[in-house]
Amino acid sequence: MNNRTLVKVSAGEYCMGFKTISQRKKSPQTFLITRDMLAQLEQKPEIITQDIYSFAALRLNTAARTLTISFSWLQRRFDCELAGWEETAVLPYDALTSFMEASAQKGGPKTWRVLSLQNTVTPQVVFVDTEGLRKCLENRTVRRKLARALRDNFWGADRVVFYHDFESYSFMFQSCRAGRPSITGGLILHDQNDLKKAHYSVHT
User: Fold this and answer.
1) d(CA 178, CA 191)
2) What number of CA atoms fall less than 13 Å from residue 132's CA on the CB side?
3) Residue 174, class by beta-carbon neighbours within 10 Å (0-12 exposed, 13-18 middle, 19+ buried)?
4) Of 10, 12, 66, 143, which has the maximum CB count within 10 A?
5) How many whole angstroms separate alpha carbon 21 and alpha carbon 40?
6) What was the pLDDT predicted at 169?
7) 154-164: per-residue pLDDT in tens?
8) How many CB atoms lie within 10 A of CB 173?
9) CB atoms within 10 A of CB 91
């Protein structure tokens, strides 16, 4: 598997089950996530959910169309302490949703196996809107949030160019892959009435 994690996904009527297999370990159980919760990712790209003692943090990258799931596999030991490990997998989001839709049909597939995607090279970032970038960098709080947004999004792109947007601290963008334009959208800072609680999200 070339150090990549294998994810086995099983489909139930109301839940999707996830198991991971890597060179390190095999997950101790199937992690269940409801179909309704997975459907919420389009409106709420970051979700944390629990199954028994284990946790999973889901993060949807709308620009790259990938879903990163960070599993914290925990088990209660005989001494009543919790022990476990973390496993992160990056899944092709559109392929996952296609499987979910097909599995809900009569006679549809009930299992899907996929290797976690390789981490991609950080894309080249170009700011045409230098004035907007300067304004973000002058505000320490916004600067940190922008750096985090650039770090967590735009995987799979070779180059991302940011342009002026009428919303403060926000940008329009054009991403390129293999030398060709791929996704156009906006990197928008929401809830600016309280910059400490504000957050960036990608709109396409």
Assistant:
1) 35
2) 20
3) middle
4) 66
5) 26
6) 94
7) 766 778 899 99
8) 26
9) 21
Q: Where are the domains of the chain?
A: 6-115, 124-203
Q: Which residues contact 129 (CB under 8 A, 6 or more apart)?
A: 162, 163, 164, 165, 171
| pLDDT (0 to 100) of residue 80 | 63
CA–CA dist 36, 33 (Å, integer): 8
Question: Could you tell me the two tokens for 194?
Answer: 């309280």
Angle at alpha carbon of residue 84, lines to 78 and 86, rounded to 5°: 170
As to burial, measured by CB atoms within 10 angstroms (0-12 exposed, 13-18 middle, 19+ buried), residue 109 is exposed
**Locate tokens 């996952």: which residue?**
96
> Would you state the pLDDT for residue 119?
56
Describe the strand order of the beta sheet including 124-127 as a list of residue ranges.
124-127, 159-164, 171-177, 180-190, 199-203
Overall pTM > 0.70? no
